[in-house]
Amino acid sequence: MPETALVIINMQNAWIEKTSEYYLWNLDTMIEKMNYLIAYAREMGYKIIFINHHEPEGAFALDNPLSDFIPELNIDKDDIIINKFKVSSFYNTKLESELAWIRNIVVCWALTNLCVRMFVEEAYDREYRIALIDDLTVAYSDDLHDMTLQDLSDTRTDLSILPLEQFVGE
Asked: What are the DSSP E strand ranges found in 2-159?
């Protein structure tokens, strides 16, 4: 039974589709790095969980293709997919039961200041050891990203915030 889980939050088409109001920027390099992390997690025997954000209407509606996972993501049939309908990944989802026996969580993706932050805060309060991969986590601006990470670091002792390269030990 694995003790570590990789949790990837909201890696959905709305962020990469240029016509979407949620478009961030070209994330091809980040998607490649994410697939590298996923491959690493599989090799290490981690449980892999993808969180998918949904809203009643708009880009993140269940029936909108923009709410689908980015197709280049290396999702396997054995990976866990959790749909959420709030900022919280824990609220009214099966996430807590999927994390039974898990002690360590590696987390990344979007948005740093919203869903990722909420996840880190809630997982921290549940006493998981957390590694946040900062170069695989995004916000609409570098300042907002950096400010959020700094605040999490200042207020959550033992939270590891580090780049992918350092996490995998390259």
From this structure: 4-9, 47-53, 80-84, 104-110, 129-138
